[in-house]
Amino acid sequence: MHQLPFKPRTLTLAIAAVLISSQPVSKVMAETTLSPDEQWNCSVSSSNNGWSCSVAPVKQGDLRRAPRPAPIVTEESFTRATANQPAPAATTRARAHLREQLDWVPKQRLPEKVKVALEETTPWCDGRYVEPDRPGKHFKGNSKTAPIVAESDQSSYDEESVATLTGNVTLRQGSRQVQADTARLDRETNFAELEGNVVFREPGTLLTGDHGDMMLETGRATIKDASYVMHEAHVRGDSSEIVRNEDAVLELNDATYTSCKPGDNGWKLSGDSITLDPNTGFGTAKNAVVRVKGLPIFYTPYIYFPIDDRRQSGFLYPTIAFSDDNGMDLTAPYYWNIAPNYDATITPRYMAKRGLLLENELRYMNESGKGEVGVAGLVNKDQLEKDNPYQDKDRWLANIRYQQNFSRRWTADLDYADASDKNYINDFGSNLNLSNTAPLNQKIGTQYQGGNDFNYWSLKLEAQKFKNMSQTSDDPYNKLPQLVLDGHWQLGETLNLNYLADYTHFQRADDWRFKQEIDHPDFKNPDIKRSVYDEGYGIKRAQGGRTYAEAGISYPMESLWGFLTPEVKVRSVNYNLKDLVESQVLADLKGSYTGIQDKDYTDSPKTNAASFSLDSGLFFDRFTNLFGNAYTHTFEPRAKYLYVPYKENQEFNPNFDSGAAGFSYGSLWRDNRFNGYDRIGDTNQIALGFTTRLIDDSGFEKMRFGLGQIFYFDDRKVFIASNLGQQGRPADDITDNYAGLDERTKNQLTDSTSPLASEFVYNFTRTMSLKQDFSWNTNENRLDNYNLAYQWNPEDRKVVNLGYRFQDRVDRYILNENDKSTGKTTGNNLSQADFSFAWPLAFTRNWGALGRYQYDITNKRNLEQLAGVEYTSCCYQVRLFWRSWIESDDNIDHPDPKKGIFLQFVLSGLGNITGNSGTEYLQGIKGYKIREK
Questions:
Q1: I need a labelling partner for 53 at 20 to 30 A (CA). Which of 75, 268, 854, 865 fits?
Q2: How far is Cα 44 from Cα 35, in angstroms, rounded to an integer?
Q3: In the 8-state DSSP scheme, what is residue 922?
Q4: Does the CA dihedral 469-471-476-478 come out positive or negative?
Q5: Cα-based distances in Å from 376 to 290, 327, 359, 467
């Protein structure tokens, strides 16, 4: 046989179909100039010296050369795109090695850019799956209509229309590619049989096996004794047989599934059959067993799991727990992907001692709004018999949240939650998205925003109730309804008018005041208590309407070097009250205030006051150099004068939603020392302070320090007494030292200066900072407040927090074992130290340590101790920690510490198989981000 004078790489299947079976052929290429209905017809020339070829119509059943791709990806552009790519590693040895490595590339061999990204996002991963470059990898057209290209070391053709390709066979169509040691191609059926080191590729998927077959026109392939990897999902596995369907769905028999790298079987899911659907982003497995380090830990007859970030219907992981109150506690949530804008989570929960509980949450969204509806409750009432005040009673919880946009300016929202009893959440918890749990919020409202940049206004109408979920606190006031109009009007270039009008009607149930706890008459256990409520006493019985109005005109004058802003403001508050008993109100107020006169009593109190303020500041800056670094150093002195005259008889104003504001550096510049509208604080004062900063060339604030103090020209008179409305409550149930609180408040009203307040922030780097706030009482030479917080947070899994808090408080009453006051007092200063950290261990990036220690220095007790470790890899995460803690509302003098050991196992690609398992406790480590992927 005469050899051709050239050895091209590629050989189309159309040429392979007419090769003479008895003659070996070197690598031959046919020009792709034929139409889809034509083929080459070749035979040995009569002189036995070369080939004799002609163009002939394709016969029925012959392999047809696919038409050219769509114009956006022409054969010319496809050739250009792949011309510089290296040829695929098609040797038998390389393909055999590929089955072991599955495109896994160790970190040290990754390109530098990829390595840096991996180090920033998942430093505990030591590599990633990378699909190698190959012809067709970036093909964007329809693979089914792309030309079919084949290459091999040798080819032959028999008389039964079967072409045999041997030696490093590669078949390629569009983005699909299959390689093998030997391939037999039937031109009548377009069916290929593959033998030896079979490798099938398409973007994001690699299949390898010993032998298999493929329909060339549809892409359906079957591979025996196979391994697979899905690059973007970061998962791999083995199977006795893999069927790749026409729609790219993979069906695996007797298969495994894991996100661990090749050679690592940290966890593995085994199933009789596994289906992986890249179209939906989910997989399923039947008769599945999850093994961790070879140990079976979980079995399910059916499981549905994600292989990417898309959502799909299916069962989520069940959780199992045990407790004295509930017995065995089994939860099996089901997620229902109803539509792109609707979904639901249905959670049946079986508690051996209480019965079956169902919790359902529906979420929905449309073009103009979104919302959530949640319902939970016991199906057959509460079955717990021992010491259960709710035995044989219905227990339920419900919530609904909705936001509606009627137009760009007009919106409405609904946020409503309710429960059968105050202990429901304590007894059962909830996964419903509640905006508040103590108390539950019940609000509906609408708002309209009008005007423009120079004349802005908004009108809001709301009705809001609160469901008290505490057994030992007063019910809060409801706002039924509240109407608010506020706005800003710019009168010219510098004159501004701000205004606010608020009408609120306050009311609450008849029995709203917590009076005391008594032993429950239906139970012998003294730990079972019943709360007793009554209608209240004195001024706190007040209900009714409050109208508040405020208007202020300011004339800000600003420049690069400073500002000056004079402002005049008028405030007015008026009440229309009911349910007051005059004798009670007078007795209540006389027990807390001086100068109360019987003739001043009214159920329609009002207070009107005008105020004047003059706020000013200067800006100085200079360039400086510290420790070899250039900074802009600023010095910003500020002075604000404020005058508000005293308005008498504000004691007759109820306290619907107001209180004394805490004091800090920011308090120096406030116009009212009270929150809310029920009190207008009188004052004649000037606040002096300054702020200095260091700012680098990038605009990063390296340091900020502020210091200031208020100087009073007159004593203040308006305050809110702390012991109002207490008459009628048993003395041993009043655990707050109201007399001490009021004495301190009255002393502060006569001080000539406020505490000296300071703030300090120093950013060592963008990841390390020190923050400090304090206020020093210069009148009594006493530290009032101090907060220190240091944080180093170089990355998500590296954080160190060190903090200290101090607050000077009046003495408290000592409590006995039954939470009753003994009448004796002791120190009550808040003095707490807090240390927490999360840090990878030095010898490996996979292991990390977690810890927190919070100590109450005043009462010499541990508030929280937490110590644990976590192991994080690309395929799973384990957390094990021990925690000891005291609840915030526990008896200070007779605490009941709680302890627990928590284990959490998170499988990458499957999720958390142990429920929360204490994850919420790790939120106390500020800056630590919990990753569960």
A1: 75
A2: 24
A3: G
A4: positive
A5: 31, 19, 4, 17
559: amino acid identity, one letter: S
- The one-letter code for the residue type at 264 is D
* 347-356 residue pLDDT tens: 999 999 999 9
Whether the per-residue pLDDT at 67 is higher than 90: the answer is no
* Three-class DSSP category at 569: strand
**Beta strands of 258-341 (E only): which ranges?**
267-277, 282-292, 295-306, 314-315, 319-323, 327-331, 334-339
Task: Please state the rounded mean pLDDT for residues 606-623.
Answer: 96
In the 8-state DSSP scheme, what is residue 582? H
Number of H helices, E strands in the chain: 7, 54
Chain centroid, CA 352 distance in Å:
33
Q: What is the pLDDT of residue 75?
A: 34
List phi, psi (to 5°) of 515. Answer: -100, -50
pLDDT at 665 over 80: yes
Residue 185 near residue 16, CB atoms below 8 Å: yes
SS3 track for 592-643: CCCCCCHHHCCCCCEEEEEEEEEEEEECEEEEEEECCEEEEEEEEEEEEEEE
The 3-state DSSP class for residue 424 equals helix
Judged against a pLDDT cut of 80, whether residue 920 lies above it is answered with no
If you average pLDDT over residues 406-435, what whole number do you get?
90
**CA 845 centroid distance within chain:** 24
CA neighbor of 872 nearest in space, from 121, 311, 37, 43: 121
Would you list the DSSP string of 853-899? EEEETTTTEEEEEEEEEEEE-SSEEEEEEEEEE--TTS-SSS---EE
CA dihedral 435, 441, 442, 445 (to 10 degrees): -70
H/E run at residue 500: strand 495-507
Please give the pLDDT value at position 931.
61
CB-CB contact of 568 with 612 (8 Å) = yes
Distance CA 282, CA 313 (A): 9
Residue type, 373: V
Burial of 263 (0-12, 13-18, 19+ CB in 10 A): exposed
What does 62-88 look like in DSSP terms, one character per residue? PPPPPPPPPGGG-HHHHHHHHHTSPPP
What one-letter code names the amino acid at 688? L
- Residue 907 to residue 871: CA distance in whole angstroms: 12
Angle at 811 between CA 807 and CA 816, to 5 degrees: 120
Query: Residue 753 carries which DSSP code?
Result: B
Encoded tokens for 372 = 């959530």
Cis peptide before 57 (omega within 30 of 0): no
Which residues lie below 8 Å from residue 85, measured CB to CB, with a gap of 6+? 133, 134, 135, 137
Give the integer Cα–Cα distance in Å for 644 and 658.
18
Tokens of 34: 């034929």
Tens digits of residue pLDDT in 811-821: 999 988 888 88
pTM for the structure as a whole: 0.75
Residue type at 401? Answer: R
Burial group, residue 813, by CB count within 10 angstroms (0-12, 13-18, 19+): buried
Candidates 813, 831, 808, 833; CA nearest to 823 is 813
Beta strands in 658-732 (DSSP E): 659-660, 674-675, 683-695, 701-712
Q: Could you say which DSSP state residue 673 is in?
A: S
Q: Higher confidence at residue 381 or residue 920?
A: 381
* pLDDT the model gives residue 56: 52
**pLDDT surpasses 50 at 202:** yes
Closest CA to 232 of 276, 178, 177: 276
DSSP character string of 389-404: TTTTS--EEEEEEEEE
Q: What is the mean pLDDT of residues 731-740?
A: 86
Q: Is 189 exposed, middle or buried (0-12, 13-18, 19+ CB in 10 A)?
A: middle
Confidence (pLDDT) at 337: 83
Burial 688-702 (b: 16+ CB within 10 A, else e): ebbbebbbeeeeeeb
